[in-house]
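ok new one. same drill as before - structure tokens go in, u give me an amino acid for every spot. 76 of them this time. try not to just spam alanines like last time pls lmao
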């Protein structure tokens, strides 16, 4: 966390959690009408192996941000 606040939407890699610079060349994949960005082909491959689990995890994370932690975590 560098506390940047540059005004651009922050992208992050849902596999390893690394922040992605939207201005750099990024690897991305679209899954169920959402686009996900990755730091490299390795994370993209990992995502494709467990895309549904990661998608649910990410939705829960977004929900947690919006509702101040009312999300129930069904899985570790
Ligand atoms: Zn990654």
């Amino acid at each position: 966390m560098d506390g940047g606040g540059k005004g651009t939407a922050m992208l992050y890699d849902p596999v390893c959690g690394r922040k992605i610079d939207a201005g750099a060349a990024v690897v991305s994949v679209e899954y169920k009408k959402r686009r996900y960005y990755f730091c490299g082909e390795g994370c993209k491959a990992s995502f494709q192996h467990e895309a549904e689990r990661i998608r649910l995890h990410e939705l829960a994370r977004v929900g947690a941000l919006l509702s101040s932690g009312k999300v129930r975590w069904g899985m570790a």
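The chain has a mean pLDDT of 80. and btw The chain has one domain: 11-67.
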